Amino acid sequence: MARYRLTLEWDGRPYMGWQRQAHGPSVQQVLEEAAQSIVGEAVTAHAAGRTDAGVHARAMVAHFDTARELSPYRMAEALNARLRPHPVAVLSCDIVDDAWHARFSCIGRAYEYRICNRRAPLTFAKGLAWQVAVPLDAAAMTDAAQCLIGSHDFTTFRSVHCQAQSPMKTLDRLAVERCGEEIIVHAAARSFLHHQVRSMVGCLVLVGRGRWTKDDLAHALAARSRDALGHNAPPDGLYFTAANYPEN
Amino acid sequence: MARYRLTLEWDGRPYMGWQRQAHGPSVQQVLEEAAQSIVGEAVTAHAAGRTDAGVHARAMVAHFDTARELSPYRMAEALNARLRPHPVAVLSCDIVDDAWHARFSCIGRAYEYRICNRRAPLTFAKGLAWQVAVPLDAAAMTDAAQCLIGSHDFTTFRSVHCQAQSPMKTLDRLAVERCGEEIIVHAAARSFLHHQVRSMVGCLVLVGRGRWTKDDLAHALAARSRDALGHNAPPDGLYFTAANYPEN
User: Fold this and answer.
1) Mean pLDDT, residues A176-195 taken together
2) Which among B40, B91, B32 has a CA at the least distance from the CA of B67?
3) Is B137 a known active-site residue?
4) Residue numbers in A near B84 (CB within 8 A)
5) Are residues A88 and A122 in the same domain?
6) Does residue A27 register a pLDDT over 80?
7) Which ranges of chain A does DSSP label H, i.e. alpha helix?
8) Domain enclosing residue A44, as ranges
9) A213-228 burial string, b = 16+ CB within 10 Å, else e?
């Protein structure tokens, strides 16, 4: 038996998210079917994080086990060949110890949220960024973001469907960067609540538009209530960008 | 009568190029139909440069005339509304003197060519970059590019369908930049021959792969023959990025 660790990139537009769903295509299904067609046996894939419908990945980490052993290079090549024409690619592949687990061994996750801050409709970035037509004050967003960093009860920024046992999370990084007409929000933590990044970004955009002050954001956090949420950003702009492990 | 100058962005994947074609959709057709539906009369659009099928634009400049005068802001908004769902957007719009012409007044044009230098298949960048799976030496490409800069007979790098009267062109800039797995080639000139950028990039990639030396590239240029061309890069990676005018 060999455990293959994969780094995956995918365009989330056609998918219901990572996890298998009865009502539509998922990245997990596409990957498992590609792997099964190579190894000739049922395969179950595990990822560092689940993602929502329409959310993208630049470097998701996943693994699966199989009795059929190929070199990591040949496995990556075979998977990429079978994944065509799906917009899912294996960026790297290695064989790891079977004590290692893509989800349970993961000690850090990072996301980027891409905002296209312009009046003109999106062309290349359609479905790949959140278009905000009114000018955003990125400096005000950076300033306000500071109150979310650290350990807090993030109930306000948590989906009603969240399965986490506790709403307490430690946010290690929340940085706002303007690059021309784009604003990128970088978020990093050991783990996140369901919808946490999108909910934080939605509220930061209220600050950037001048509708909320930094204090409004702090009060929303302190309220520990979904009713205090200002806005949940759409999935289009969200990218899973890194999973970190102790060996790294 | 008012002459409207537009800056346009488009994703070239669905189009036969800028110019109207009998056998498929073009950006000119999509733009003219949007304008006509606003002004209620026939409209002819002119662009700073024609582009091939599958080539993109980040900032193409074009103009059209109409007897129906709207403010530039309202014209841009109306065009963007009518252009949906086409991946063509008006980034800016103004009214200009009717002595000004998008093509004939243009004194400088710039392109970028995007290469994705990686083994894994493209996901987000499919149709938006040229994937080159073998490692490229960007420094060697930069070095070789120097021999193409300046005034030369570019017959080697010219399509057989090129309509220019002379193969002499002055290349002002040809720079190769590596950003992670991407290599961007920047090209600027008063004007280019048909396929010139793609043909230069195709040969620079031969240098980057180690198949051609800098001298091979210089000899190909000196041959002044299409037979000496090493490789023509696909349209996928090509972006029209700027048109310059005396007023700018």
Assistant:
1) 96
2) B40
3) no
4) 121
5) no
6) yes
7) 27-39, 72-83, 138-145, 196-208, 214-223
8) 2-96
9) eeebbeebbeeeebeb
Residues B172, B191: Cα–Cα separation, whole Å: 10
pTM of the model: 0.94
Residue with tokens 């290690």: A172
Residue A118 and residue A159 in one domain: yes
* CB pair distance less than 8 Å for A9 and B123: yes
Task: Answer yes or no: do A218 and A123 share one domain.
Answer: yes
A105 Cβ contact partners less than 8 Å away, ≥ 6 residues apart: A245, A246
Q: Say whether both A48 and A145 belong to one domain.
A: no
CA distance B186 to B8: 19
Q: Using the 3D structure, point to which of B96, B124, B143 is the last residue of a domain.
A: B96
Taking contacts as CB-CB distances below 8 angstroms, the residues of chain A near B126 are 87
Give dist(CA A147, CA A174) in Å, integer.
Answer: 10
In this structure, the number of other CB atoms found within 10 A of the CB of residue A74 comes to: 12
Asked, for residue B205, whether it belongs to a domain, the answer is yes
Q: Which two tokens stand for residue B16?
A: 């036969």
Whether residues A86 and A136 fall in one domain = no
Mapping DSSP onto H, E and C, the string for A13-64 reads CCCCCCCCECCECCHHHHHHHHHHHHHCCCCCCEECCCCCCCCEEEEEEEEE
Domain assignment of residue A102, yes or no: no
DSSP conformational letter for B133? -
Q: Which residues of A touch B80 (CB under 8 A)?
A: 120-121
Residues in chain B with pLDDT values less than 70:
248
Classified as helix, coil or strand, B151 is strand
Tokens of A92: 């790297």
Looking at the structure of chain A, the number of domains it has is 2
Please report the pLDDT score of residue A162 as a whole number: 84
Query: Which residues are CB-contacts of B21 (< 8 A; sequence separation ≥ 6)?
Result: none
Which residues of B lie closer than 8 Å to A, measured between beta carbons? 9-11, 56, 76, 80, 83-84, 87-91, 118-124, 126, 128
